[in-house]
Amino acid sequence: MGMTEIFNSALRDSVLRSWIEVAEGSDFPVQNIPFGIFTTPGGKPRAATRIGDTVIDLHALAISGFLDGLEFDHDLFSCTTLNSFIALGKPAWRSMRERLMLIFDERNPALRDSPEKRVEILFPIAAVQMLMPVQVGDYTDFYSSIEHATNVGIMFRDPANALLPNWRHIPVGYHGRSSSVVVSGTNIHRPKGQTKADDAEFPEFGPSKQVDFELEMAFITGKKTALGQSVSTQDAEDHIFGMVMFNDLSARDIQKWEYVPLGPFLAKNFGSVISPWVVTLDALEPFRVSGPKQEPAVLPYLRFEGDHNFDIHLDVFIQPENLKEQQVCHSNYKYMYWNLAQQLAHQTVNGCNINVGDLYGSGTISGPTPDSFGSMLEIAWKGTKPVKMPDGTERKFINDNDTIIFRGYGVKDTLRIGFGEVVTKILPAKS
Ligand code: CA
Prior knowledge:
The chain is an alpha+beta fold. It has helices at residues 3-13, 58-63, 83-86, 90-103, 109-112, 115-121, 146-156, 252-258, 281-284, 340-348, 376-379; strands at 36-39, 46-51, 54-57, 122-124, 129-131, 139-142, 173-175, 181-183, 188-189, 192-195, 204-207, 211-212, 215-221, 240-248, 250-251, 272-274, 279-280, 288-289, 309-310, 313-319, 326-332, 359-361, 387-388, 394-395, 403-412, 415-427. The protein has 2 domains: 3-131, Roll (SH3 type barrels), CATH 2.30.30.230; 139-427, Fumarylacetoacetase-like, C-terminal domain (Fumarylacetoacetate hydrolase, domain 2). Strands 6, 7, 8, 13, 14, 16, 17 and 22 form an 8-stranded mixed sheet that branches. Strands 4-3-2-1-5 form a 5-stranded antiparallel sheet. It has a 5-stranded mixed sheet with strand order 9-26-25-20-21, with no helix packed on it. The N and C termini lie far apart (67 Å). The structure holds calcium ion. Calcium ion (CA) binds at residues 141, 214, 216, 248, 361, 363-364.
């Protein structure tokens, strides 16, 4: 039996294991094969995948001949972003992922038994710096969690009519700003801006007192369309390269004063943080589940077949400076009312074109119970239910020097595939 046959049978039996060590509970078994961009001290940015805590240099792998036969230009993997690779399309992503699984299959000696090549190709995660994986062209943020939209409606409008009349008919969204989308590990200064207290006659200017996280996931498109073209729910996933976790930082006090009538602006564009590894939809296949029932029935262009939700656990922690982290939320991507296929169909239904590397945030993902709410606004319920930290202090929102940590993963039987972390520290406002 040749390596390809062994590989195919191993995939079928889902017993594929790597010769690279993968610790129990790791998000990165050989079945994951996420894509990212990394650098090493004195090195240049290049493309990578990850197994366990080992980062695999795809450019070095290509130069050593391990990608021969795939007909990829080696330069694709020495770029500062994944955009050129992503632009090759789904068959290329798929053949690359399968080749990488084959190279690192525990039964394949080619690289396993070549110590001098391993030194050139493999790096411990602790020895590298992860960079932005893609150049984000356009960034859209949806508002697709019914629990989140309901909670916000109850708090700020009318508990009896928490959802606005359009909400069950339209995947509500807005065009965000891509220049301030940054990779995990980037620290963000508390933003300054205009706020107005309810009892004040005039607004004031100063540091936001209500910096918050928004627990989101985002998909990245990998296939462009022409202006005037629409993408159906049926074809949507062919246009999606993969997913990341996404912390869409928000300043609630700035948001409250500025958002009428045109929506979010400076409250939302001072830093939006993504996880460094893009996990492909192929890797997420084992976690595919059906979504909530949509009532009333949606318009024909939003109808879909099959399952387009994913069972991905999402945990949020706050770590005050020099203290242990404290979990404040556990939610799940499967709660999404509007799925990613509907979001992309809606984004393009008017002929709006999409590009490789565009980012589409899910909107804050809240679950049905208070411990699954995806923002401090909801967890502390507008400041009325503060959260206790390990040192006895309380949080209604995020304090200076608090670090916000997201973790996300799917589990099916013995298989765990995850996204790693999104880590962001909130620094004091710049003077
Ligand atoms: Ca958001």
